[in-house]
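Inputs:
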Amino acid sequence: MKVVSTLILSLAVLSGVSCAKKTGKTDTGADPKVTTLGSIEVTAQLAEIRGDLINDPLYDYAHVMKYKVLQVHRGKVDKDTIYIGHYNPAKPRDSVADARVQQIGGNVKQFRVGDVHRMALEVPIDDHYMGGIINKYFGEVDDPLYWAIWTNKAAK
Amino acid sequence: MMAKQVFRLVIFVVGLCLTSAILGAQDDKVAQLAKEVGGKGWIVYASRGANGTWDLFLMRPDGSARRNITNTPYYEEGGPRLSPDGKKLLYRRFAKGTTINHDLWGFQGNLMIAEPDGSKPAQIGGDREFPWASWSPDGKQIACLTQKGIQVIDLETKKVIRELPREGIYQQLFWSPDGQWFCGVANARMMWTVVRMNAQTGERNVVHEFQSCTPDWFHDSKHIIYPCRPAGQKGYGFTQLWMSEGEGKDTRLIYGEDGFHIYGGALSPDDKYVLFTRCPQDGGGSEKSGAPICVMRMADAPAVAGASKDLRKVHPEAKDAFVLQLTEGWEPFWTYAEIGAEK
């Protein structure tokens, strides 16, 4: 009886540890994709989305969003505020890859101001993406635009 | 009571006669147009063949003498363009079953070069190589739009002999007949902007902003034709055919029709006639079976077809369109070269 209860307790503890690990992973947003893809990896808070996110099945585009950088994990980022282009942002990241952009994904379902994202990035966007770009900061901000390859949700 | 009924009958009959007279006059004008263009070279275009795949076809500009020049049941073909001397045909070939994307087709499949009648097709490079290839004036080079930039490639050696930054151009690159310019679709102040680029210096200027794409050159290399879905329409709106000078000046409507999206704009070699497709759905129809190919005189522009009440309000100067409607197809190209003799 004691053996059985010890076993159950051990399983419960192990399961708890496993869940905690999983929760931890979700919290930091780290996964094998975001930590390896692209040359830059940051955790950043979505500060502003200018304009509406259009969901038009006929036309693809990237929408530039403003982020406040919280932590740089890989690569070099010079500024606290960066501008990142997300491909077809009205779509969840796990189903956004298509014929035009194949190496893209993540677990973010919806872009909301205030959310924190862990992202694998490249810069400048034109070296990594050929398509329409909605950039409501055009003429206002001269900084290079980043290109989001992998976008995971992270804890605030 | 009886007199009233007779009066109504007379009005009805007179109305009927007038309508048929107007329609008859329109038919006569369209028949005259067909007669006028029938012997003026050939139109090469993509269309669904009897085998169900996209093939390349030739037809006279009045729709006669139509024939399939590729007839490949194991491939899809599209985007045909003859070299300026009319001696070679460039197009893209896709794996069977490929959905040809109206925006991405220049990146899809393989570049092919064949004789003008479709014989001796040769694949140039591998899958997705030489994207958006378009002819140089002498037909010895092609310009391609790649992620790295605009590349000018020598066709004999396949080597890049010159490269320019693409300056935000992301699709539909075409080299001007005089070799001095490129046009394409770019991100500028906004996306879907038609731009012109100096082929030597790489300097870029905006031709037309806002929901404009698929540009092509007039043969004078001074004007650009492009579809545009202007703002201010009810709901989604309809795509119309427009033209501008290369500097972006003198922007004018060529043809519009509420209820239809106009794509595939191209000119006859003397710039006197315009080709386009007329599709109820946006995009030009490459994902399905294309749309009717139409021919119109440039002298009749600006023209509006159908009731198009809203469009006529915006363009009160527009004439009624006399348009010769041909078979269904996609991305037609007009040559005066005599290439259509039966094999």
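The helical segments of chain A are 2-28. Flag for discussion at group meeting.
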